[in-house]
Amino acid sequence: MIEWILLVFLSFLPPLIYMVWIRNTEKYYREGWKPIVLCFLWGASIAIIAAVILEILLGIPLAISIHDSNMVSLLTVVIVAPIAEEFTKPLVLRLKTVKKELDELEDGLIYGAVAGLGFSATENLIYGWSFLSEGLLIFFILIIMRSVGGCLLHASATAWTGYGYGKTIMKHASVLRVVPYFILAIFIHGFYNFLVSFDMRGVATGLFAAFVFVAITIILVRKKIRTLDERTC
User: Strand ranges (DSSP E) for 15-137?
Assistant: First the structure.
């Protein structure tokens, strides 16, 4: 029981802290808590279930057509998973409660990032459960790494799809205008997964490169939020 309490606490606390951090990046007209919490809960539940189903469906033809298991695993991590996850997470922006709040360009960035953080919280829980079998020291090290890399990855990638969707709503444009931002989200997600799974002179080098990459992306997201926020003050 104590292990479960510790697992849930450490899995959800960092994403919740990041959620407040992202939401408070805005100085003027900050988003209300109701749509923020809804986005987080969507990412932590519906999005992750839908993503798993979609990954299975997309993975079937891949496994049938490619007989190299290592190649299938790599393509699943770098392409299939990013497509599935970056599709399901930002769908929350289409819900009426959230959609009606998209009245500033930075809003999509914030809601997309929060949905990504909810997703990462449940991922932390799932991976953390397997980490417990490695002992408490390894568990703490791995859960901390996920709390930095995984959380910031999901937040920064999905933020851009949210931004694209918010722009289409405000400008009454075709939803197809979201596609370039969706592709950007997939690239960010896929490139991060590639770095953490590719042995570049040692696993530590890949992890360091991935953390640097995700730190840069979240900095750019927050900078974009602040810039847009200042224009609307």
Answer: none
